[in-house]
Amino acid sequence: MTYHILVVEDEVKLAQFIELELKYEGYQVTVANDGLTGLTSARESKPDLIILDWMLPGISGPEICRRLRTTGDKVPIILLTAKDEVSDRVAGLDAGADDYVVKPFSVEELLARVRAHLRRESPEEPDTLQFSDLSLNRSTREIYRGNRLIELTAKEFDLLEYLLIHPRQVLTRDQILERVWGYDFMGDSNIIEVYVRYLRLKLEANSEKRLVQTIRGVGYVLRE
């Protein structure tokens, strides 16, 4: 599932930076640079989460929160604020925000808060992931291609699981490297290609149709 995040921020460079980081994490992002546009977009596009600046032209962040909450909208809202007084934070939360991040902030902290709120809103992830005739059971760690049981190593399993979580979505080499091997991985730069080859050999052992496709110069995608 690809989450849609609305960023309402009038500092254009900051908005672009947040948008770039969110897109790198695989989110769909819409940006608004003033309060009225942000409120309209929130009502029309129904995002899964809103990152909302406090000080905005037209309508302030807290006022946007209040207007959304009075209509019953329960979308998670993270308020960005330069105001660090306790009374200001309380005012933002009382207006309807779910969380706040004080400027200047660490992008890692913002992304962690985004993930935390989306987890709370998301239904529990299923034990079984399926695509075409391929299935992966997270509890038993069994993988089937049709009725054929496939044995994978731990890292092959992690790679396939990541692809199955994002079917038909092109995943860059950097995204795969960070999620499957870890952000600080310093090993063989061709490790992804090696493991994709291992995975294909096992998934296509009976001449089955290729599901793990290469997007030259970008990365890989799971599609028929």
UniProtKB/TrEMBL annotation:
A GO MF term: phosphorelay response regulator activity
Modified residues (4-aspartylphosphate): D53
Residue range(s) of DNA binding per entry: 126-224
GO CC, any one term: cytosol
Residues forming coiled coils: none
InterPro entries according to UniProt: CheY-like_superfamily, OmpR/PhoB-type_DNA-bd, Sig_transdc_resp-reg_receiver, WalR-like, WH-like_DNA-bd_sf
Protein name, entry field: Response regulator transcription factor
Organism: Limnofasciculus baicalensis BBK-W-15
Lineage, highest ranks first: Bacteria, Bacillati, Cyanobacteriota, Cyanophyceae, Coleofasciculales
